[in-house]
Write a sequence for this structure.
């Protein structure tokens, strides 16, 4: 759906985006993860045709995106980081304005606006001025304005910055919902857990460069991290630790307390049935099992050498 | 996906601007109530008596002589006489310039009368000449009596009798008055129209400039960026914003034009020429507004610069007092403002009775200036959009 | 305690100094308008009034009296510029062409011996010529009457010339029953330039004092007010600091404008101490107004709009743009509710070299205004700093 190839942009001495390449499949939710100032918004601006890249190419659904040409713009829906809405107009009027900019008119526009308001849960507040909305409601309307024209690619630029956890959850749910409708989503964030929750693949960027890209598992395996499996056993753990430690695929096993063993494994989801069976062969039963996969946090720390800056 | 026509985008942008204008309730005050209130207040203040020479009179013991002087002064078309009870009241009113000149009539001996003449700084010199000559006529009888008593060596009673006898044989010199030209009654109506015209000019420009905040906030809110991400050409954004500014200027023109006509009975004489001038001024105002909205960085800047330019250019351009009352050199300088071009043309329409045929050069100047400003502003706006 | 207060005040003042819009509204805009008005206040250059004279009656006494008497003296002192025409038709044509505003035609004997013709708009020229014609005719008739009377009384060969000379002397001495005495110098009074400068300064004062108290609402929205309230600074000091900022900004802008108009434009404000009293009282009135507005408004935009409306209504009513007192009636009665009117009134009282105490009355009324408007304002605005 989106192909970005060798994108580069410098402002004076600052290299904002440096040889960035990635692609997004149809219906995929793709995360662009990086700290503030990593070049995410610059990259997005170029994808939307708002900024002229120094080098590189962008195609959406086979259409090349060029600044100065409006070709292909209708394929993209942008939800900017700032609240790009007229706060002195009501929600409906705002949506009607953007609908018209994308060529939606009359009853078609009306039906679509109602539909989108339904999706973001603002139907009953549509006639209120945006400045009277809560922060979360404004964000939701901001997203609604971006998806009005049924874009093939929806770009969300840090849509959850500075809002309360409840609204944030609502937004994340809505984005997850979009992922199931076949719409491709490009989601930028500096919140690790959002990328983990929403995106099939994530690209980690910092200082304009892409440092890694792939599914979470691919990224984790890149940094050679192990899953952690914590098994609580109803009975004595004495011999079980050694048995588990000898099991193929288990790197190490150790006792946490009288009833709990912690194992480091290569791939927890594959190994889990075997581990439970192993405990069974010892004549014991598993009362609780907990899998801790290594997070992107640790991946990020590993790749950039720094914790994710806020 | 349907494609967007440029026209559609322009309509959308203009419509959004109009909705925002309507949503801001204080606009009702600044665009409608305020200009009409000022036209009304000016009509009361200046269209009424305030533009006249105001003469204050204190005459506690009315006499025939006092009345004669008063009648002469009161008969002058643009003189309004106000009566006061005490000399102190008169002096206070003159000190605060509520009255220009005045006198206190004090009876003297033998039916004589002394007029104590007061004048505010720099005022009433010509009125003084009129009163002076009137008093001269009134004193002639007395002076002639004095000459005759001296020459003939008789007492006053005898001289009075002789003068009365002589008068019978004399044919008095008559003074006849003729007035040409228009009906003098129209003057105050004309002045009222001129003052309303000044406000027409002032508010078209001022409201345009303060409306620049809408253009600025569109950018600050990030809507401009989002609009650019839509399939909308840059030219459509510029045309939409420019047209919005122009419509606001036209709306303001219409409010003052029709408001002063329908509510306060201002006679615009050549309405089409006045409207054409208003359109020219609206072009200038919308160009200025676009430039200001593009250049400014904060809402406070727009407010401050808008008010500064809107009022100062209006004052310099003869919107607050007619150019015809300016010192000569300043009147030349005033024509650097668009206001002066419009106000001068309006004066010629309203006072000199000129029409479209005579004032069209002013319309052309305004329209040309407006188009140049709009072009410059469009280039500036386009630069921010790329 | 005082240190905290001044820290708050100083921070706000510093922010205002760097914020160019405050300088524009507080200084540049009013200064520019004062400059323009003081230029236009000069009025058009007082040129001589153009009038005409035509004599078709030869050496008629009234012709001589008019042309060589009254007209030539008014010509000499620069009141009139007289053009002579051959006949009535030429003179009339000149009026219709707008060359002259009015004219006198001496036609000779009989009714209409003297005709004063004026354009309908040339009211002053017409009135002057009318009075000149009247006084000249009265003098000529008076002399004729005197000759007749002297002949009746047996005076030998009375001389018209000699009588005319002596009558002229009596006339210019102002001898007679009605006399005009100039006492204008005693009145003093404010000059137009100063009046306009004061009007503009007070008009913009109501905008300038916003920089301060209005900050309460801005800080409330930005959230910095909460932080201030959480600090050990007492709440009342936060409010007081904002009031002080408004007051200082107001006084500073008034002082600059007064100095500017006095030094560069020649406005005459009067006794400095008296003007200072007026400025302090006027700024108090303006600060109390914005305090009430801030107390009533919900957002800074709303407060700004309401204050602008009040500033405009007060300015128009109080005579900042044109003298409401001249129009008389309701408007001039209503104008006494505005501080603008009393500021101007204070200057009137100070004019003519009066001591500073002359300003106390008007200043007192402005202080009363400040108290009446400011107390509820303080109570309402105080709610914003109450935790």
């Amino acid at each position: 759906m989106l192909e970005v190839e060798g994108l580069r942009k410098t402002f004076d001495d600052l290299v904002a985006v440096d040889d960035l390449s990635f692609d997004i499949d149809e219906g995929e939710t793709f995360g662009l993860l990086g700290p503030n100032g990593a070049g995410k918004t610059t990259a997005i601006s170029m994808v939307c045709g708002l900024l002229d890249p120094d080098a590189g190419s962008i195609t959406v659904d086979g259409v090349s995106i060029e600044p100065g040409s409006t070709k292909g713009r209708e394929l993209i829906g942008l939800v900017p980081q700032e609240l790009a809405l007229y706060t002195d107009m009501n929600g409906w009027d705002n949506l009607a304005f953007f609908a018209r900019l994308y060529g939606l008119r009359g009853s078609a526009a009306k039906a679509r606006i109602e539909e989108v308001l339904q999706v973001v849960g603002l139907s009953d507040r549509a006639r209120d001025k945006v400045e009277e909305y809560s922060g979360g409601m404004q964000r939701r309307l901001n997203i609604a304005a971006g998806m009005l024209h049924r874009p093939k690619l929806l770009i969300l630029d840090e849509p959850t910055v500075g809002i309360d956890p409840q609204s944030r959850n609502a937004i994340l749910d809505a984005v997850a919902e979009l992922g199931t409708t076949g719409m491709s989503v490009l989601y930028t964030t500096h919140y690790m857990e959002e990328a983990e929750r929403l995106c099939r693949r994530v690209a980690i960027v910092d200082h304009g460069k892409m440092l890694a890209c792939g599914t979470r598992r691919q990224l984790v395996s890149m940094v050679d991290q192990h899953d952690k499996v914590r098994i609580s056993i109803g009975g004595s753990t004495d011999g079980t630790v050694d048995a588990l430690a000898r099991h193929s695929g288990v790197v190490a096993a150790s006792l946490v307390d009288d009833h709990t063993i912690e194992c480091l494994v290569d791939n927890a989801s594959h190994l889990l049935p075997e581990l439970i069976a192993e405990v069974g062969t010892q004549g014991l039963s598993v009362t609780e099992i907990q899998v801790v996969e290594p997070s992107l946090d640790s991946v990020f720390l590993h790749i950039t050498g720094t914790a994710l800056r806020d | 996906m349907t494609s967007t026509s440029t026209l559609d985008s322009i309509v959308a942008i203009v419509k959004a601007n109009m909705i925002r204008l309507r949503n801001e309730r204080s606009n009702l005050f600044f665009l409608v109530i305020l200009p009409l209130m000022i036209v009304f207040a000016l009509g009361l203040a200046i269209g009424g008596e305030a533009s006249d020479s105001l003469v204050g009179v204190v005459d506690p013991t009315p006499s025939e002589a006092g009345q004669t002087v008063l009648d002469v002064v009161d008969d002058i078309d643009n003189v309004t006489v106000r009566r006061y009870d005490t000399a102190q009241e008169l002096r206070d009113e003159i000190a605060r310039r509520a009255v220009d000149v005045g006198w206190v009539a004090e009876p003297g001996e033998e039916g004589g009368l002394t007029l104590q003449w007061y004048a505010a700084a720099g005022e009433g010199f010509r009125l003084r000449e009129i009163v002076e000559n009137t008093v001269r006529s009134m004193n002639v009888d007395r002076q002639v009596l004095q000459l005759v008593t001296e020459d003939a060596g008789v007492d006053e009673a005898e001289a009075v009798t002789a003068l009365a006898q002589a008068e019978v044989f004399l044919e008095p010199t008559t003074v006849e008055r003729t007035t040409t030209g228009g009906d003098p009654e129209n003057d105050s109506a004309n002045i009222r129209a001129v003052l309303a015209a000044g406000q027409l000019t002032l508010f078209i420009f001022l409201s345009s400039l303060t409306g620049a905040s809408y253009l600025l906030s569109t950018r600050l809110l990030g809507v401009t960026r989002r609009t650019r991400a839509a399939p909308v050409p840059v030219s459509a954004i510029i045309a939409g914003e420019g047209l919005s500014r122009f419509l606001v200027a036209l709306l303001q023109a219409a409010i003052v034009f029709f408001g002063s006509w329908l509510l306060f009975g201002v006679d615009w004489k050549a309405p089409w020429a006045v409207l054409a001038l208003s359109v020219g001024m609206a072009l200038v105002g919308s160009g200025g507004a676009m430039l200001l909205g593009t250049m400014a960085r904060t809402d406070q800047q727009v407010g401050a610069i808008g008010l500064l330019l809107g009022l100062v250019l209006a004052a310099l351009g003869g919107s607050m007092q007619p150019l015809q009352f300016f010192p000569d050199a300043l009147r030349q300088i005033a024509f650097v403002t668009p206001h002066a071009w419009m106000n001068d043309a309006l004066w010629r329409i309203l006072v000199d009775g000129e029409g479209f045929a005579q004032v069209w050069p002013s319309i052309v100047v305004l329209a040309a200036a407006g188009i140049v400003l709009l072009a410059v502003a469009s280039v500036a706006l386009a630069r921010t959009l790329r | 305690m005082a240190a905290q207060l001044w820290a708050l005040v100083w921070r706000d003042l510093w922010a205002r100094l760097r914020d160019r819009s405050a300088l524009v509204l507080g200084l540049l805009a009013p200064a520019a308008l004062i400059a323009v008005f003081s230029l236009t206040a000069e009025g058009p250059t007082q040129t001589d009034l153009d009038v005409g004279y035509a004599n078709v009656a030869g050496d008629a006494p009234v012709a001589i009296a008019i042309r060589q008497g009254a007209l030539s003296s008014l010509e000499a002192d620069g009141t009139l510029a007289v053009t002579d025409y051959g006949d009535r038709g030429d003179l009339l044509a000149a009026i219709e062409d707008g060359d002259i505003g009015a004219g006198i035609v001496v036609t000779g004997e009989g009714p209409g011996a003297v005709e004063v013709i004026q354009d309908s708009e040339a009211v002053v020229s017409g009135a002057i010529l009318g009075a000149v014609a009247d006084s000249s005719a009265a003098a000529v008739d008076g002399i004729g009457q005197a000759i007749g009377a002297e002949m009746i009384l047996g005076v030998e060969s009375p001389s018209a010339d000699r009588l005319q000379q002596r009558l002229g002397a009596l006339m210019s001495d102002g001898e007679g029953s009605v006399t005009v005495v100039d006492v204008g110098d005693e009145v003093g009074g404010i000059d137009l330039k100063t009046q306009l400068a004061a009007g503009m300064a007070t008009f913009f004062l109501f905008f300038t004092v916003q920089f301060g108290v209005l900050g309460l609402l801005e800080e409330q929205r930005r959230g910095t007010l909460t932080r201030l309230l959480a600090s050990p600074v007492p709440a009342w000091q936060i409010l007081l600091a904002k009031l002080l900022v408004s007051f200082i900004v107001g006084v500073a802008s008034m002082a600059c404008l007064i100095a500017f108009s006095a030094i560069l434009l020649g406005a005459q404000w009067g006794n400095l101490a008296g003007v200072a009293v007026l400025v302090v009282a006027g700024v108090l009135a303006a600060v109390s107004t914005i305090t009430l507005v801030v107390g009533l408004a919900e957002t800074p935009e709303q407060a700004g709009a309401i204050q602008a409306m009040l500033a405009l209504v007060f300015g128009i009513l109080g005579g900042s743009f044109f003298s409401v007192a001249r129009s008389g009636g309701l408007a001039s009665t209503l104008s006494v509710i505005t501080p603008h009117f009393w500021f101007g009134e204070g200057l009137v009282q100070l004019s003519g070299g009066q001591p500073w105490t002359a300003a106390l009355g008007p200043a007192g009324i402005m202080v009363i205004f400040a108290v009446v408007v400011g107390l509820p304002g303080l109570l309402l605005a105080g709610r914003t700093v109450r935790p």
Q: What stands out?
A: Chain A has a mean pLDDT of 85. The CA atoms of residues 228 and 264 of chain A lie 5 Å apart. DSSP finds ten helices and 14 strands in chain A. The first strand of chain A starts at residue 2 and ends at 11.
